[in-house]
Amino acid sequence: MSFRTESTLAGYARATVDLRARMTEYTRSRFAQQYLSAFLEPALDATTDSSDHTAAVTDAFSRIAHQPWQDGEPYVLAPAMTAIIAAAAQALDLSGDIIGNDVAPSDAGVLFLPEPIYERGVHGQVTSIGAIAWAKFHNTGNGRTGWWITGWADRDDPLDPAAARRRRQLAEAPELAAQFGPYVLHSFAEIPIGTPIAARSEPAEEVDRDWETAPDGRFCIDESALRMRAVAAVLYAFWRIQEQPIAAVAAPPLDRPARRRALRASLRHDTRVVMLRRTKPVAEPTGEAKWHYRVRFIVRGHWRRLVNADGQPYRIWIHSYIKGPDGAPLLLGETVSVLAR
Which of 32, 190, 205, 325 is deepest in the core (most CB within 10 A)? Predict the structure, then answer.
């Protein structure tokens, strides 16, 4: 069962239970531990020469990779919301921001994307973001807290160039290919709590890029243009936007067989589907206008900084909309004509 075979809210709930049960089982497997060790090896080799420390770090990452699938709150991003979240993520820059403890809807969770967002890495290769998991952590050694974020690609995505590469690599080892779960780990990221977020450092020298084409008609985030990891930007955008009026959250019913499977696997089965709410056009400012527009034009989506009643800063996403008088010509270029008094 997968999201490619489901199109209803109830179907999304069934697929969520099935995929989480399979991923819970997979992340416990010996093969998943071996894959994780190989995935972390380059970073660990560059930061430590202690085998004991390497084993401890790998064990901690293993728990982080497993916990959200079983214990976290499950969310499904409806396809109509995908482009909005992707645009918000591409426009996001949290450099220097201090994130509060309550920005996430839960301490652990998994966000499923039935219509994946694609990311192009700094080396030009494209992979899908089919699911994102998060878990809050607290480091007793240095007192740091935050969220560890894992990005997962849909193993069988027919449009994903990374999946095609993986199939070619495993073509002669079907027994190895069968050991993968429905999602394949491809990235880690961190969002700290209570300390300024550092921007990603630029590469010391120009990196070689093997530019890969993204699937037609799908949103692809260029990670080389971001100041943070793409999966972290997508997840933060989701956290903020799912609370805004632009989004509607539904809790679809779960049929008895799926509910029983969730109970057998000790899974939370309160899946939430985040959909696009029908909204009214943004109203023009009230009061006497000092100018008027001769045309209508598109205002791009952007983040707006606000401060709550307690003096804490936060952001909301302003989705793109058309501004200008009804009936005026729609300008599709970048220039706007204004008649000033």
Answer: 32
Which one, of 20, 19, 22, 27, lies nearest residue 2 by Cα? 19
* Helix, strand and coil percent figures for the chain, each rounded to 5: 30, 25, 40
Strand 296-299 vs strand 108-120: parallel, antiparallel, or unpaired? unpaired
DSSP per-residue string spanning 89-131? HHT---TT-B--TTSSSSSEEEEEEEEEEEEE-TTS-EEEEEE
Instruction: Tell me the C-alpha distance between 112 and 75, whole Å.
Output: 6
Q: What pLDDT digit, counting tens, does each position of 208-243 carry?
A: 666 788 888 888 998 888 888 999 999 999 999 999
Q: Given this model, what pLDDT does residue 278 score?
A: 60
Could you tell me the two tokens for 92? 């996001």
Q: What is the separation of C-alpha 144 from the centre of its chain, rounded to a whole number of angstroms?
A: 23
The size of the chain, in residues, is 341
Average pLDDT along the chain, 341 residues, taken 10 residues at a time: 85 92 92 87 62 71 87 92 90 89 91 94 89 88 85 92 90 87 92 86 61 84 87 95 90 88 85 78 43 56 82 81 64 48 44
CA 54 from centre of chain: 28
| Predicted pLDDT at 171 | 86
Three-state DSSP class for 267?
coil
The single residue listed with the structure tokens 């008895």 is: 256
> Which residue, among 278, 322, 330, has the nearest Cα to 301 in the 3D structure?
322
Residue 38: HSE in the Cβ half-sphere, 13 Å Cα cutoff: 8
> What kind and span of H or E run contains 314?
strand 313-318
Q: Which of 109, 184, 125, 115 is nearest to 154 (CA)?
A: 184
Contact 65, 36 (CB under 8 A): yes
Tokens of 26: 């997979």
User: Hey, what amino acid is at 87?
Assistant: A
pTM of the model: 0.83
What is the distance between the alpha carbons of residues 108 and 73, in angstroms, rounded to a whole number? 6
Q: Are 134 and 105 in contact (CB under 8 A)?
A: no
| Residue closest to 9 by CA, chosen among 275, 276, 278, 279 | 275
Q: 117 near 77, Cβ under 8 Å?
A: no
